[in-house]
Amino acid sequence: MSSTQRKESSSASIAYARMLDDIRTGTLQAGDRVTETELATRLELSRTPVREAIRMLEADGLVEHVPRVGATIRKLGYAEVMELYDMRAVLEGTAARMAARTASDIELAELDALNADMATCSDLNQAYHLNRQFHLTLLDAAKNRFLLKSMAGLQRTLLILGPIILSDPTRAAASVEEHEAILRALRARDADAAEAAMRAHIEAGHRKRLRLLRDERRLTPQAEDVLAEAFRD
Hints:
Pfam families: FCD (PF07729), GntR (PF00392). This is Putative HTH-type transcriptional regulator YdfH. Residues 9-76 form the HTH gntR-type domain. Keywords: DNA-binding, Transcription, Transcription regulation. GO terms for molecular function: DNA binding; DNA-binding transcription factor activity. The chain has 233 residues and is mostly helical. It has 2 domains: 3-73, Orthogonal Bundle (Arc Repressor Mutant, subunit A); 78-230, Four Helix Bundle (Hemerythrin (Met), subunit A) (Up-down Bundle). The chain has 10 helices and 2 strands, in the order αααββααααααα. The protein has a two-stranded antiparallel ribbon. β1 and β2 (70-73) form a beta hairpin. α4 (78-102) runs antiparallel to α7 (145-158). The protein is elongated and about 55 Å long. The chain starts with a helix and ends with a helix. The model is unreliable at 1-7 (pLDDT under 50).
């Protein structure tokens, strides 16, 4: 690989990471058009690495080509949101089960520290990073590389849903309590309880996410009917 190719590859990686962050923060939202010229100007890069970054996002399933519109951030349907959270519950529940057996004392101490910091954090962006680090640390503690790879793809797709649900102070506080339930099970080396606590945590986030989508009117009429049924109790 020539020096020029290496530079372009590095620039494409930078553009890709910046665009992922823009999707996470809501700067780029589902349905937004993605143009090489605008992105290259904003990211202060040439169009070639930006074009490659868009291709990478398309391979991830985050960008799609809409007729007469061009490349856009993909919109997730209601069924896809349900399926994503179902898979997240399965994968992270399994990770918690494995971590109950394999997590080291150092990893458990790190999880404790992250959750304690999250409990006192008032900055939304910092809370996001602490929460993300908590879940990544637990995944690392499960010590299964295939599980990590599966979760990485899932998390990228979840970015399309936009800004995190921890913006609701009540949900942020509940997340800390749910993390603590997971930690109690991990400390006790109780695999069944760890998996159950993690599944309950993911499902609580799922319910909050669906409410946000409903309130923002980002669900189809058919989805509204299903959602009403889901919350009738």
